């Protein structure tokens, strides 16, 4: 406890196992949602975020992290339901602090990525530092694993839907977007249910092309650390505004593809394609605007 009190708020104060965090949520979740329990719920959410991401190593881990994030998300919606925008949901710390939903999304994405790195690269002589200059496409090639069971695919779909739901409440230019996309790729590519996998397989070429425009997730850098206030940034990574825009557009295109894969399973939902996005002219307008700003 004394060591915890000496640490700054953005540093993890303690380390609970995923089982411990899961039990914490179950205990708090058993309480009725009332104004009397608001403080307990807020402390529970802070405990999850202060604990930091926990690598997901098994199917049980996936089920537990799904429950933890679902509880935290629903609690945040309930606690701050009177606010005009969920993007305004932030801790009572400095104004620069990002929203609680964004922190939860970062934590979930990092847990997926760190779990995959731990399971795939365990016992292998792999230089993760060398991967930081490569692309998401090459990172996924290194992370290739055997086909997963139907039960595993179902849990993967559940986690992916949670990530997509949280991402839907994020600002367009979120710094953690590349990590979110990396987590979705690790969960869905060749590891999703038959219906989702079929849709993604039909767009395999587009997915690989888009992944080649996205850098490796920050979590693959050995220097990466969990930051409470905002995503960790690699100070050595220098990119132009146009390069950042191309990566962001590739990420948003993949979000469309992944969302469409789930919508395609439901006949009553219209499916938005990448062609629809390109025909809208939005991406081209953004590129033209960036080029104009760069030339001035």
TrEMBL record:
**Source organism:** Zea mays (Maize)
Highest taxon in the source lineage: Eukaryota
Stated name of the protein? Putative cinnamyl alcohol dehydrogenase 1
Organism lineage? Eukaryota, Viridiplantae, Streptophyta, Embryophyta, Tracheophyta
């Amino acid at each position: 406890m004394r060591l915890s009190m000496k640490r700054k708020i953005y540093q993890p104060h303690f380390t609970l196992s995923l089982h411990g965090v899961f039990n914490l949520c179950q205990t708090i979740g058993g309480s009725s949602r009332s104004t009397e329990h608001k403080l307990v719920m807020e402390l529970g959410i802070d405990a999850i975020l202060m604990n930091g991401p926990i690598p997901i190593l098994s199917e049980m881990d996936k089920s537990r992290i799904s429950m933890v994030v679902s509880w935290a998300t629903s609690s945040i919606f309930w606690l701050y339901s009177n606010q005009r925008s969920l993007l305004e949901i932030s801790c009572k710390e400095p104004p620069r602090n990002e929203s609680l939903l964004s922190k939860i999304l970062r934590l979930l994405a990092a847990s997926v990525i760190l779990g995959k790195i731990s399971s795939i690269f365990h016992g292998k002589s792999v230089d993760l530092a060398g991967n930081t200059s490569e692309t998401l496409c090459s990172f996924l090639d290194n992370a290739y694993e055997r086909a997963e069971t139907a039960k595993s695919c179902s849990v993967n779909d559940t986690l992916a839907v949670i990530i997509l739901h949280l991402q839907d409440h994020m600002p367009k230019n979120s710094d953690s977007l590349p990590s979110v996309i990396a987590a979705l790729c690790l969960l869905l590519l060749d590891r999703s249910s038959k219906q989702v996998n079929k849709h993604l397989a039909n767009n395999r070429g587009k997915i690989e092309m888009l992944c080649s425009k996205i850098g490796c997730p920050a979590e693959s850098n050995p220097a990466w650390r969990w930051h409470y206030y905002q995503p960790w940034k690699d100070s050595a990574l220098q990119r132009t505004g146009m390069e950042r825009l191309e990566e962001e557009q590739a990420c948003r295109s993949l979000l469309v593809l992944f969302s469409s894969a789930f919508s395609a399973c439901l006949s009553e939902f219209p499916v938005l394609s990448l062609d629809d996005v390109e025909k809208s002219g939005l991406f081209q307008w953004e590129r033209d605007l960036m080029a104009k700003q760069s030339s001035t």
